[in-house]
Structures are given as C-alpha cells and as structure tokens.
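Lecture notes, part 5. Sequence design as translation. It can be helpful to think of inverse folding as translation between two languages: the language of shapes and the language of residues. The source text, in structure tokens, appears below.
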C-alpha cells in the first residue's frame, strides 16, 4: 500500500524497476484532477493521474480484478488484454473506465461500491443524489 502523499514517487520507482503497480480507478475525483467520462451511460468525473502516469512511463496497462470463485472459496485475479492507450488524457481515462465497466458488467455482484460515484456533475447538470 502506498499513501497519498508519496504515491507518485513510489509508483515511478516501482515502474522504473519493472515492477507492477495496481490502482483503484473507479473513484470520484476533485475538479482539478479529473475529467468527465462515460461510466454506465452517465458522466462520471474520473481521475486523470492514471492516464498521465501511463503516458509518462510507457507502462503497459493491463486491467485486472479480484474475482471471488465460490467453488474454490477464494479470490483469483482475472486479467484482461492490455489497453491500447493513445497518450490523450481524456481518451485514455475513458478507455480505463470502460475496462472497469466491462468487468463490472461481467461480475456485477462483485463490484464493491461504497461511495457516490456520480457525486460530481458536469457544469449545469442536476445532482443525482439528495
């Protein structure tokens, strides 16, 4: 686990050493740290740090998720094909969020969602929560 204050340096060091970094990307973000992308047909503000980090390092982005296998009574990591990223922050953020959406659609009962994903709204859009 990497704390918020030292996360960029730690990730860059890990990637430079050809290590693996896992990042939770289905979170709301602050206005200055995100862009609105489509997530389940609703604009969702998503952080751009992931796309910027991938562009900066040239790291291969492989979507992966922990999936509960009932017959084995344990989690297994499920990986999907690498994403083709473009270097465009908004486009790549959309591609990453689309990968999350595909996995959630495949295993909807396993998406742990404990925050207001659509709390931030595009300018002029009505709130979705009370």
């Amino acid at each position: 686990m990497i704390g918020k204050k030292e996360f960029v340096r730690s990730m860059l060091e890990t990637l430079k050493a050809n290590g693996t970094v896992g990042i939770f990307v289905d979170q709301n973000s602050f206005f200055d740290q995100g862009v609105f992308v489509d997530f389940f047909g609703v604009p969702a503000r998503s952080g751009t740090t992931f796309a910027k980090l991938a562009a900066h390092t040239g790291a291969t982005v492989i979507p992966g998720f922990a999936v509960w296998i009932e017959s084995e009574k344990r989690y297994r990591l499920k990986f999907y094909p690498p994403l083709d990223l473009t270097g465009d922050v908004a486009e790549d953020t959309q591609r990453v969020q689309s990968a999350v959406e595909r996995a959630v659609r495949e295993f909807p009962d396993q998406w742990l969602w404990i925050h207001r994903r659509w709390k931030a709204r595009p300018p002029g859009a009505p709130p979705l929560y009370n």
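The translated text above is only one of many valid answers, since several sequences can fold into similar shapes. The two ends are 33 Å apart (CA to CA).
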